Amino acid sequence: MNPQVLIDGLMAGALYGLGAIGVTLTYSILRFANFAHSELLTFGAYAALALSSALGALSAGLLEPIAPFSFGWALPLAGLVAVALTGLLALAVDAILFGRLRHRRSSIIVMVMASFGAALTLRSLIEFAFTSKPAYFTRELQIALPLGQGMRATPDQLLSLALAAILVIGVHLLLTRTAIGRSMRAVSENQALAGVVGVDVRRVIRVVWLLGAALACIAGIMSGLLVQLRPYMGFDLLLPLFAAAILGGIGSVPGAMLAGLIVGLAEAATVQLVGAEWRTAVAFVILVLVLLLRPQGLLGRAQA
Amino acid sequence: MSVELVAYGCFFLTMALTYAIMCLGLNLQWGQTGLFNVGIAGFVAVGAYVSALLTTPDVADRLGGFGLPMPLGWLGGSLSAALIAYLVGRLTIRLRADYLAIATFGIAAAVQLLALNLEPVTGGPFGIGFIPRPFAGRAGDPLLFSVLNLALVAAVVLLLYMALERLVRSPWGRVLRAIREDEPAALALGKNANRFRLQAFAIGGGIMGLAGAVQAHFIGFIAPENYLPMLTFQVWAMLIVGGSGNNRGAILGAVLVWGIWALSAAFISATFEPGQQARAASLQIALIGVAICAVLLLRPQGVLGEARVVSRHLLEAVGSRKIRVATDAQPVRQPPE
Questions:
Q1: How many A-B residue pairs are in contact by the CB < 8 A criterion?
Q2: ipTM confidence score
Q3: What values do phi and psi take at B325, rounded to 5?
Q4: Which of A88, A142, B169, B198 is 20 to 30 A from A50 via CA?
Q5: DSSP H helical segments within A178-295, as ranges?
C-alpha cells in the first residue's frame, strides 16, 4: 500500500474528528442525533467564502497569499467572523425550533425529525443563494512538500492538521479543566440533577451549541480549502460524522477525534485497495460493525 | 374534458397513489409504532430493483432478468425490502431510539451506492429499462391504458388500507400503540416491546418495497437517481401533513403533497428561465423542510390527526348498550367516602 494513504486518511480524519466532536457533544447534552449539524459545516464554509470575497473586494492585498499557504489574510479574518455567525445560527435555530420542542418535552424522535426539517431548509437555502456549482476559496496552485517515505502534503494540509490537533486539545482541556466543562459533563450525566445542584442548564446548552457550531464552521472551512465548497458538502459528511461519533462513544471528545481518524484512514485505504467508488460505503460498514460488536463505542461507557 | 387531460389526471393520481403506499408503510412504522425511518428511499429502491430483476426479459450484459410474471416480482420486491428492514431493525432497535434513524440513513446511502456501482446486477447509472408494464397490451389506447393502471394501483392501495386498518385494530396493533405510549406499562403486561417493534418495522419496510415495485412497473424504467434522499423527505412531508397515525391521512397527505409538488414544479418551469430552474427548485425543497418543522411546532397531529382506535369488539359491545365512550381519557373522579 502506498504510504500516501496515511496522509490522505489523516487529512480526512481530522476533518471528520472536528465535526464528530460537535455531534457527540450535542448528542450527549441535548440527547438527540442532530441531523442538521452537518449543515452548520456547510453554512460556516459559505459564510467564510462570502466574507473573504467581500474583504478581498475592499482591499486586494488581503487576497495576496501568505508565504507558503494558498490563501491571504482575508480567509482567517473571514473565518473568525464566520465562526461567530455559525454560532449565532445555531443559537437561532435552537431558539426557534429545538428550544421550543425541548420546552414542550417532545420525544427524542420528534427532535431528530425537526433536525431533519431544519437541515433540509438550511441546505436548500444555501443552494439557492450560492447555486449548486462548486466554489473555491482560492485558485492558487500548491506544490506538495515531500515528507519522506514517499509521502507528500501541501502546506495547507499540514496547517489544517495542526489546527485540528490544537482545537481537539483545547476542547478536551475545556471539558476537563474548567468550571463550564464540569457543568457540561454534569448535564450530560443527569440534566435534572445538575439543575438541582445549581448548574445553569440553559447556559450549558448555549455553550454546547456555540462550541459545536464553531468546530463545524472550522471543519467546513478546512474542507472548502482542501477540497471545494458545495451545498451538499455537509450532507455528504453526515454518515462519516455519525459513524465517528458512535465509534468513539457518544459524549467522548478524544473518542470522536480518534474515531474520526479511524474512519478517514479506513476510507483512504479503501480507495487504494478496493476502488474510489466504494469510499462512501466505508462509514456505513464501520457503523454496522460498531452497532454489532460494541454499541457503546471505543471510549464510551455502556449504558441503557 | 379532453382525453389528454383525463389521461394526465389518471397519471397524476396513479403516481400519487404509489406514494400513498410508501406513506402507509411509514405510517405503520412511525405513526403506529414511533420508529423513525430516514431510509425510505433505500427500501423503495430495493423493492423496485428486485422486482425489475425478476420480471424483465433476459439480457446479455447483466444478471437476469428472469422473465417472471409481475405479481411474483411485486412479492419478491416487498419480501426483500422486508428482509432488509428486519436486519436493520434487528441491529438497532434494542439500542438508542435514534440509532435506528442513523442506521436507516446509512442503508439508503448504501443501497444507492450499490445501485450505482454494481453494474452487472443493477445496470449502474443507466438503470434498468423495459420493465413490463401492467396492461401493456392496451397501451395503444392512452385513455383506457391510464384508467386501467389507475384502477390497479387504487385497488392495491384500497386492499392495503383495509388490511392495515384491520391490523391496527387487532390486539397486535393495540400492543404497538401501548408500547409507543407507555413502554414500561406494556412491558409489565408481558409484551416483548422490541419484538413487536421489529415486526412493525419489517412489515412497514415490506410495504415500502411493494410501493417501489408498483412504481417501477408503472413507469417502466428505474435508475439510481430515482431513489435519492429527496424521496425520503417527500414521503415524510406527506405523512406529517396528512397526519401520522391515521391511514386515511397517509393517503390524503400523499395526494395533497404530490399535488403541491407537481403544481409548484410546473409553476417553476413556467416562470423561471431554464438556467435558474435548478435554483428555484431548491426553494421547493426548502419549503418541505419548513413545512416539516412548522407542522411539528404548530400542529403536531397533522391535517387529519391520529385516529383513535379501539378494538372493534369493544365498539360493538359499547354500541349495543348505548354507552357513550369518552374519547379523551379523563380521570374518573371518585365520590368522597
A1: 124
A2: 0.84
A3: -100, 135
A4: A142
A5: 179-189, 191-196, 201-226, 233-248, 253-273, 279-293
How confident is the model at residue B62, as a pLDDT?
A: 74
Q: How many Å apart are CA B93 and CA B234, to the nearest integer?
A: 24
Q: Is A127 on the interface with B (CB under 8 A)?
A: yes
Mean pLDDT, 10 residues at a time, chain A of 304 residues: 85 93 90 91 95 87 80 90 96 94 83 89 92 86 79 87 93 91 88 88 93 95 92 91 92 91 94 88 92 85 52
Query: Domain residue spans in chain A?
Result: 4-136+156-293
Alpha carbons A149 and A176: distance in angstroms, whole number = 37
For the record, the C-alpha cell of A50 comes out as 462570502
Do B289 and A120 lie within an 8 Å CB cutoff?
yes
Query: What pLDDT does B314 receive?
Result: 65
> Residue B208: what are its φ and ψ, rounded to 5°?
-65, -40
Among B136, B122, B86, B130, CA closest to B107: B86
Pairwise CA distance, residues A26 & A30, whole Å: 5
Burial of A67 (0-12, 13-18, 19+ CB in 10 A): exposed
Q: Is A152 helix (H, G, I), strand (E, B) or coil?
A: strand
CATH T-level assignment (fold) for domain A4-136+156-293 = ABC transporter involved in vitamin B12 uptake, BtuC (1.10.3470)
Q: How far apart are the first and last CA of chain B?
A: 73
Q: Which amino acid is at A245?
A: A
Is the predicted pLDDT of residue B1 greater than 50, yes or no?
yes
